[in-house]
C-alpha cells in the first residue's frame, strides 16, 4: 500500500461553490468547483496527500427551503439528514471537478473518495442550552409559532424578513470515520470528508449513535481531522489573503506570522469576531497545540504562493524551534440528554 510522504488538510467554506450574487444553480457550483480544483491540485504537485473539508451553509440552507416547500407532499427531513445530503452532493461536484483537473494535467490515476462523515458531539455542550446558529428559510409568524409549538424549534425574528430557526453549534469531539479517512489517505486517495462540519451525532447509553439537530463549525472539524491524522500542514481558506488586525479600518495591518500566544492575545482583544475569523483562529490554535505544526490561513487565489511561503498568514508553535504541547487522547464520553432526530 503506497504511503504519502506528507499530508495537507484543507478547509474552505460552502461559499466557495456559491458565490455572492449567484443563484446557486448546480451549473454555477460545478463551474466554481472547477476553479477550486485548479487551486488545490498544485498541493499534490508539491508532494502532499490531500484531505478536503468543505462548508455547506448555502447548500444545506437550500435543501431546507426545498424541504419546507414540499412539506405538504412528502415527509420532511431533519437537519442531520440534510447535512448528509449536502455532504454527498458537494462531494460529488468536487470529485468531478478534481478528476477533470487531474486528467487535464495528466494525473488521471489519482484516486478520490467522498466519505459521508458522522462527528460525535457532547450532549452537555453549552451550545445546546442556547441555540444561536440561524439556518434554513424565513417563515411568517403564524408558521413559526406552529413549528415552535409542534416541533419544539427555537426561532428568532429577523426584522423585515420573518422568523428563522436557530440551532446549537456544539464543538466536535470525535470523527467516527477517522480510521476510514486514514486508510484512504494511506492508499494514495484524495479524501473529501467532514463536509459541513460533519453530521452531528451523540452516543447513547447503549453505545449506539443518534443524530441531533445542530451545526458543527467545519473549521473545528477540519482541525480535529488534521490533528488525528498528524497532518504536516493544515490550511484554512478564506476570502482574504492574510489575517489582519483592525480589519476594515484605516490602520488595518496584515499579519504574516504569529505564534499561538500572539493569536490568543489578538483573539482576546476582539480582533477576530465570531462570525468571521474567530473560529478559524481557534481551530488553528488547537491544531498547533495538538501537533506542534503550523497552520496556514489564506485565500484560494494565493494558495500556491502561500504554501511556498510567499503569501498568507502562518500560525506557528511558540518560540523558535519549539513544538507546541502534545494533546492527550481525545475521548467522547458524553452524558445527559438532547432532542434526537434519527
Molecular structure report:
By secondary structure, the chain is of the alpha/beta class. It has a single domain (6-130, 168-316), classed as Acetylglutamate kinase-like (Carbamate kinase, 3-Layer(aba) Sandwich). The protein contains 9 helices and 17 strands. It has helices at residues 26-45, 57-69, 79-104, 141-151, 178-186, 218-228, 260-268, 278-291, 303-307, and strands at residues 6-12, 48-54, 112-115, 118-121, 133-139, 154-158, 162-167, 172-175, 190-193, 199-203, 209-211, 233-238, 243-245, 253-255, 257-259, 295-299, 313-316. The strands form 4 sheets. An 8-stranded mixed sheet has the order 3-9-2-1-12-16-17-15, with helices on both faces. Strand 1, helix 1 (26-45) and strand 2 (48-54) form a beta-alpha-beta unit. The longest helix is centred in the first third of the chain and has 26 residues, at 79-104. It is globular, with a radius of gyration of 20 Å. Residues 321-342 have low confidence and may be disordered.
List the helices and strands and how they pair.
Elements: E1 6-12, H1 26-45, E2 48-54, H2 57-69, H3 79-104, E3 112-115, E4 118-121, E5 133-139, H4 141-151, E6 154-158, E7 162-167, E8 172-175, H5 178-186, E9 190-193, E10 199-203, E11 209-211, H6 218-228, E12 233-238, E13 243-245, E14 253-255, E15 257-259, H7 260-268, H8 278-291, E16 295-299, H9 303-307, E17 313-316
Amino acid at each position: 500500500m503506497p504511503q504519502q510522504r506528507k499530508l495537507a488538510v484543507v478547509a474552505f467554506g460552502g461559499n466557495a461553490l456559491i458565490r455572492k450574487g449567484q443563484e446557486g444553480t448546480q451549473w454555477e457550483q460545478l463551474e466554481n468547483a472547477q476553479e477550486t480544483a485548479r487551486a488545490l491540485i498544485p498541493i499534490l504537485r508539491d508532494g502532499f496527500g490531500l484531505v478536503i473539508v468543505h462548508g455547506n451553509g448555502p447548500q444545506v440552507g437550500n435543501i431546507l427551503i426545498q424541504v419546507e416547500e414540499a412539506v405538504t407532499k412528502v415527509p420532511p427531513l431533519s437537519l442531520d439528514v440534510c447535512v448528509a445530503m449536502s455532504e454527498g452532493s458537494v462531494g460529488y461536484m468536487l470529485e468531478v471537478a478534481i478528476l477533470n483537473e487531474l486528467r487535464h494535467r495528466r494525473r488521471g490515476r489519482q484516486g478520490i473518495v467522498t466519505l459521508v462523515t458522522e462527528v460525535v458531539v457532547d450532549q452537555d455542550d453549552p451550545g445546546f442550552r442556547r441555540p444561536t446558529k440561524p439556518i434554513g428559510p424565513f417563515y411568517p409568524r403564524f408558521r413559526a409559532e406552529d413549528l415552535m409549538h409542534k416541533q419544539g424549534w427555537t426561532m428568532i425574528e429577523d426584522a423585515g424578513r420573518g422568523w428563522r430557526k436557530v440551532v446549537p453549534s456544539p464543538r466536535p469531539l470525535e470523527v467516527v470515520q477517522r480510521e476510514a479517512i486514514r486508510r484512504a489517505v494511506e492508499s494514495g486517495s484524495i479524501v473529501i470528508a467532514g463536509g459541513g462540519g460533519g453530521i452531528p451525532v451523540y452516543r447513547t447509553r447503549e453505545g449506539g449513535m443518534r443524530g441531533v439537530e445542530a451545526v458543527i463549525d467545519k473549521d473545528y472539524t477540519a482541525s480535529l481531522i488534521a490533528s488525528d491524522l498528524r497532518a504536516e500542514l493544515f490550511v484554512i481558506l478564506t476570502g482574504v489573503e492574510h489575517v489582519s488586525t483592525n480589519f476594515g479600518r484605516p490602520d488595518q495591518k496584515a499579519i504574516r506570522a504569529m505564534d499561538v500566544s500572539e493569536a490568543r492575545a489578538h483573539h482576546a482583544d476582539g480582533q477576530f469576531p465570531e462570525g468571521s475569523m474567530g473560529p478559524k483562529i481557534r481551530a488553528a490554535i488547537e491544531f498547533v497545540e495538538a501537533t506542534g505544526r503550523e497552520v496556514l490561513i489564506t485565500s484560494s487565489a494565493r494558495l500556491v504562493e502561500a504554501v511556498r511561503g510567499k503569501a498568507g498568514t502562518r500560525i506557528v508553535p511558540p518560540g523558535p524551534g519549539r513544538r507546541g504541547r502534545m494533546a492527550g487522547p481525545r475521548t467522547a464520553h458524553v452524558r445527559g440528554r438532547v432532542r434526537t432526530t434519527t
